[in-house]
Amino acid sequence: MKNSRSNWILAIGIVIVLPVTIYFLLWRVKHESPQKYAWVAPDSSTIPLTAEGAQIRYGKSLFGNTSYYLGPKGIVAKISNGMNCQNCHLDAGARNFANCLSAVASTYPKYRTRSGHNESVEFRINECLERSLNGEKLDSLSREMRALVAYLRWLGKDVPRNIVPAGAGVPEISFLDRAADTVRGRSIYAAKCITCHGINGAGVRNPDSSGFVYPPLWGPDSYNISAGLFRLSRFASFISCNMPFGTASHAKPQLSHEECWDLAAYVNSQARPDRKFPYDWPDIKNKPADYPFGPYADAFSEAVHKFGPWGPIKEAKRLAASISK
After folding, report:
1. DSSP labels for 177-235?
2. In angstroms, rounded to a whole number, what is the distance separating the alpha carbons of residues 231 and 265?
3. Which burial class, exposed, middle or buried, applies to 49 when counting CB atoms under 10 A from its CB (0-12, 13-18, 19+)?
4. What distance in Å separates the CA atoms of residue 268 and residue 263, rounded to the nearest whole number?
5. For 13-41, how does the pLDDT look when each residue is reduced to its tens digit (9 = 90+)?
6. CATH code for 44-155?
7. Which superfamily does 171-325 belong to?
8. pTM of whole model > 0.85?
9. Where in the chain are all domains bearing CATH 1.10.760.10?
């Protein structure tokens, strides 16, 4: 009798405790720090030999050789500046800490404050085409768009919903406590960057001029002023983990954080395509501290927002938020 009662108590305990335990574990998966979720890109040799696999492979090829398909001499359309998607998203978006795209499939569609609405993957791809590649949109139903989306879904297929793996995007580096210095940045550029990107920042073209071996960092063929990399924080963080190309990594950066900020300031002070999008930042209070174009919800100038120091801007934003509460 006692054994029977003990078994019933045990069974009831399992019924109550097990769901709570499962809920807690799922909560931890969803909410734990992204740094605890490691990600390794899937092996491209595992892409199936099917129609779906062919679409994925085409999408990967589009990322790696965008100019061949969509550049000034593109065989599909002539709608971009000759740069490739993987000039900003290294290894076709598969390299951690290099504007890695591991979180796209798990987080889109998602709300973004820049546009002020829920964005689809297709919308975000076209944003890159219009900004970083200073080009035109793809039709959302086009073969190219469907292939790009298929590739991104395959790339992030093993990432649970709403999880952002370690290495997604670029890691943020701390703000300087001074303004970024373009003069110092010019010296760093001369010492570290000229070999690949040239003295005039124009990059190195392919032999047939259909695209670039090394992309232009400024000038008419580079990213425009609405691209993500035109924000110094985005560019400095990218430099920190990835430049000089082939020698730097997240584990072994070659430049100090100060050098990254100054270099980014120099590059982004050079002339490039001037193109703005009127729907950006519908709520100006959400503009990042280093967003270089007004109007702002604070009294700081465009020059301070672009080059810093950003500490006073962040403090003013914190105080404004506390007052509004």
Report:
1. SS---HHHHHHHHHHHTHHHH-TTS--EE-TTSSSEEE--SSSTTS--TTSGGGSHHHH
2. 9
3. exposed
4. 9
5. 554 545 545 444 444 444 444 445 789 99
6. 1.10.760.10
7. Cytochrome c-like domain (1.10.760.10)
8. yes
9. 44-155, 171-325
